[in-house]
Amino acid sequence: MVWARKLARWIRRIWLPLPYSGEPQETTIDLRRVSSRDEFQRELTKHFPIDADHRELWNSLYQAILTNQTGPRTLRFLGWAGFESRMPRYARRLKRLLVDHQKLWGTRIGGVQLLTVKWG
User: Fold this and answer.
1) Percent of the chain, pLDDT > 70?
2) Tens of pLDDT along 72-88?
3) Are 27 and 47 in contact (CB under 8 A)?
4) Which CATH number fits domain 2-119: 3.40.50.300, 2.60.120.560, 3.30.43.10, 3.30.370.10?
5) Taking the complete model, does pTM exceed 0.85, yes or no?
């Protein structure tokens, strides 16, 4: 059982790099006025370091939001229902990106909810 504790400690260090401040990050993304690809990208670049090239949007968004995470993060999307009706393909893809991440890696690691998404 000693090896199990060592393995768990090693896994926690991978998921929550030390030193871990414990301070949650909350990001509010306003999609109420977004109706084009360029506006969508402009809104995201206000909050995340993503590429200017729209062909690399999803990969760089994944890198910025999900892999560079050092603590709990809450993403709050304002105007989601309107955004879904104006840009259904982008809404589906964004939602799939975040939901798939939660399915693959789980929402809780070491008792900490790493990613919370509020669609509102």
Assistant:
1) 68
2) 778 899 999 999 999 99
3) yes
4) 3.30.370.10
5) no
